[in-house]
Design a protein that fits this description.
The protein is α+β, with helices and mostly antiparallel strands and 190 residues long. The chain has a single domain (3-185), classed as Jelly Rolls (Sandwich). Helices cover 17% and strands 36% of the residues. The protein contains three helices and 14 strands. Strands 1-12-5-14-3-2 form a six-stranded mixed beta sheet, with no helix packed on it. A three-stranded antiparallel beta sheet has the order 4-9-8, with no helix packed on it. Strands 11-6-13 form a three-stranded antiparallel beta sheet, with no helix packed on it. The protein is globular and about 40 Å long. The relative contact order is 0.22.
Length: 190
């Protein structure tokens, strides 16, 4: 069973609640908590599969064991490694391991949803991005965030980052942080 299912599920959605975000964290040791976690996990899986703009696998199921995923992120280069988990056209899912703080990122057309597998980090979201460089169409890296909200993240936590929001994963020195990222392409508002 995935560590985030065993340890509890905490969902945080910046912008959903202007004061503190949405939080749901059942007690992992209670029967109600385990049931709620299974329901929340099923909901998250369904959201990834059925979200608008995401295509279902058309030719065959894709299976990657937890052991394989762990092996894919066992060794980092310059404090980072990621592996694209097989999906269908239009869907993106990655497993990422960071051993140090990364660069500020901003995705103009993609929202990110993080599901923490192991380790801890603080994710800074929002505020104003100063500087940085364009790395691809609608993608910006580097620079500095002024303002924003810090979200302490650990196993089982989930964080939704809307498209267009700068964000930075801050890993403490000597720490390691592994998480899944589902990327959702957004459509412009009419």
């Amino acid at each position: 069973m995935a560590e985030w299912l065993r340890t509890g599920l905490q969902i945080r959605a910046p912008g959903f609640d202007s004061r503190s975000g949405l939080q749901f964290m059942p007690a992992a040791s209670s029967p109600a908590g385990n049931s709620a976690m299974r329901t929340a996990a099923a909901f998250l899986a369904a959201a990834v599969v059925m979200a608008p703009g995401l295509a279902l696998a058309q030719d065959a199921p894709h299976y990657v064991s937890a052991k394989e995923l762990t092996a894919k992120v066992a060794r980092t280069t310059d404090g980072l490694v990621n592996f694209a988990i097989p999906t269908a056209p239009g869907a993106q899912m990655l497993i990422v391991r960071r051993d140090r703080t990364g660069d500020v990122e901003l995705h103009a057309r993609f929202a990110d949803e993080f599901v923490v597998q192991s380790g801890t980090a603080t994710v800074l979201v929002g505020g104003t991005l100063e500087g940085g460089r364009d790395t691809a169409s609608g993608e910006r890296r580097g620079g500095k965030i002024t303002g924003g909200t810090r979200y302490p993240m650990g196993p089982g936590d989930v964080l939704w980052i809307p498209a267009g929001q700068p964000h930075l994963v801050e890993v403490t020195t000597g720490g390691s942080f592994t998480y899944l990222v589902a990327k959702f392409e957004t459509k412009p508002q009419p």
